[in-house]
Amino acid sequence: MIPQFNQLSDNLKGVVVLMFAAAGFAVMTALVKLAGDNLHVTQILFLRQMGMLVFTLPFIFNNIHSALKTQRLYLQLLRLVFALIAMLGGFTAVIHMPLADATAIAFAKSFFVTIFAVILLKEQVGRYRWFAVVVGFIGVLVMLRPGTESFTIYSVYALIGAASAGIVMVIIRMMSRTDAPETILLYQALGIAIAMLLPAIYFWQWPTLNEWLICAAIGAVSYFAQKANIYAYKFGEASLLASLDYVRLLYATLFGYLLFDQLPGAYTWLGACIIICASIYTVHREAKRKQQLARSPYGRSFTNL
To answer: How far apart are CA 297 and CA 293, in angstroms?
Structure first.
């Protein structure tokens, strides 16, 4: 590592690496939007997963007997179902909506985590966190503006993706008690690829050279962004880093403007500010209660598209 980096405090190391991870996820979503001009979302998702599998092959070969060993197969399969819904909803929204708008709505997953943690994990949530959930969904409604001309079905896809991502994060919390993080990552990469094989064949359009390069970049950037995300949480405190994750909205706004000449409107900024404030409050309430955050490095790696 760079000597100057090693001299930083652990939290600063985490922040620096998180900035790279957030930039990587923003680049990945921008590439998905570019590929979506001509390729079907299922084909993009299949090629992304295949690209990520290439990077996981060393782990598979080095741990051939334990790579897929799990004590909770039913949870792995259930997680795959909701991860698939989250990715299809999120990818479709990214392709058809302004980049910053789709990214902002995706932040609603924080509130779904609270709801599903109560339902599935029987966690106790106080009135302050329920208030944050309500405020957060008000922010979502401000962005969606149902009943107006700006409301589209793709906003609903983004919200369904966020809800499914919230379920995934809670399921991962349950699985992490018994299964290794590498096994969880491998099931996701392999399972989504298998699930997308037939739809990808059905909707297949032979990519141009440029589109092959974009899809290869999506897989590579996704893998390294997830690894950077994991290392960021290895260095820094979860409550601090989760609060800074919203820098992705700034990256998404920048790439949306530079690549697609799109800027979020006033309602998107207002709704995003409400969501971010409510989410940060929720994160710090969890940290104050000394709970293990659902938005762990491994949880987030499945929900950043």
So the answer is: 10
Is residue 191 within 8 Å of residue 72, measured between CB atoms? no
Q: What angle do CA 154, 91, 261 make, to 5 degrees?
A: 75
pLDDT in tens, 185-208: 778 888 898 999 999 999 999 999
Give burial (CB, 10 Å; 0-12/13-18/19+) of 197. middle
Q: Is the pLDDT score of 19 beyond 70? A: yes
Q: What is the domain extent for residue 165?
A: 3-301
List Cα–Cα distances, 98 to 66, 95, 135, 194, 304, in angstroms.
Answer: 42, 8, 24, 29, 17
What does the pLDDT read at residue 221? 92
Q: Which phi-psi region, left, alpha or beta, contains residue 145 (left: φ > 0; alpha: ψ -120 to 50)?
A: left
pLDDT at residue 302, rounded to an integer: 46
Does this model's pTM top 0.90? My answer is no
Instruction: Tell me the one-letter amino acid at 156.
Output: V
Q: Do 243 and 283 form a contact (C-beta atoms < 8 A)?
A: yes
